[in-house]
Design goal:
This protein has helices at residues 15-23, 47-63, 93-103, 141-149, 177-181, 185-194; strands at 2-4, 8-10, 29-30, 71-82, 85-87, 107-119, 123-136, 170-174, 198-200. By secondary structure, it is an alpha+beta fold. The chain has one domain: Maf protein, CATH 3.90.950.10. The strands form 2 sheets. Strands 2, 3, 4, 5, 6, 7 and 8 form a 7-stranded mixed sheet that branches. The two termini are 27 Å apart. It binds thymidine-5'-triphosphate. Thymidine-5'-triphosphate (TTP) is lined by residues 12-14, 16, 32, 77-78, 80, 89, 110, 155-158, 160-163, 180-182. It is found in: Cytoplasm. InterPro entries: ITPase-like_fam, Maf-like. Its EC number is 3.6.1.9. One of its GO terms (biological process) is nucleotide metabolic process.
Length: 212
């Protein structure tokens, strides 16, 4: 239900971010950015600054390499915080189990930073972040073991996917749901419209009728 006014590059390998955009009719080209999180994680007391800096760096990496005269680049980064501790992606099963048991029976925050960079005659960059509070019910050690065995935790901040089998762990969500999945969709669409990257409309014929 949106028409691109210029090519959109998604600077992210996350299949979830691509799916969220496609769900509303925005079809991006994907060019993942190899920006690593390590150098950005020092500012532990300021998760919004961490995810915003990472999103901006991912977008900048792609902008620096594109030769297209008019293009929009969209990048994002997601982290989880629990009582001031930052949780990225678990490196192994032990770390995934530890993350999930720390999330059990408590409330944590999911932060996503987003950067939209539009290159035409000049470069305009907008960066912001969103925070959602997620409450997990108490989950048993057996449930954690079984969940880790599915493999779902490994490419996800905090070691879980709210859109997947961990949906049964979630008691409440306060804030944007799509922010938890990796891209706050309402704010992203709003920004893309404001920067004239997309506009409402459809390329499909409205006169198509089924023949009876
Ligand atoms: C909390 C949570 C995170 N996630 C995902 C969103 C992100 O893809 C991932 C966090 O990792 P990110 O580093 O933000 O993104 P990525 O490595 O998948 O992709 P890229 O760096 O190329 O942009 O965790 C879920 O899919 N569901 C959830 O419930």
């Amino acid at each position: 239900m949106y028409i691109n006014t210029m090519p959109i590059i998604l600077a992210s390998a996350s299949p979830r971010r691509k799916l969220l955009l496609e769900q509303v009719g925005i079809v991006p080209k994907v060019i993942p950015s190899p920006v690593e999180e390590e150098g950005f994680l020092k500012d532990i007391d300021n998760p919004s600054r961490i995810v915003e800096s990472l999103a901006r760096a991912k977008a900048q990496w792609v902008i620096d390499r594109t030769t297209l005269p008019r293009v929009a680049v969209l990048a994002a980064d997601t982290v989880v915080t629990l009582e001031g501790k930052l949780l990225g992606k678990p490196a192994d099963a032990g770390e995934a189990r530890a993350m999930l048991s720390s999330l059990s029976g408590s409330v944590h925050q999911v932060w996503t930073g987003v950067c939209v960079a539009v290159k035409s005659r000049k470069l305009e960059m907008r960066t912001w972040s969103c925070c959602t509070e997620v409450e997990f019910r108490k989950i048993s050690g057996e449930e954690i073991d079984a969940y880790v065995l599915t493999g779902e935790p490994f490419d996800k901040a905090g070691g879980y996917g709210i859109q997947g089998m961990a949906s049964g762990f979630v008691r409440t969500v306060r804030g944007s749901y799509t922010n938890v999945v990796g891209l706050p969709l309402a704010e992203t669409i709003q920004t893309l419209i404001e920067l004239e990257v997309i506009r409402p409309g459809t390329t499909q014929s409205l006169t198509t009728q089924s023949s009876l």
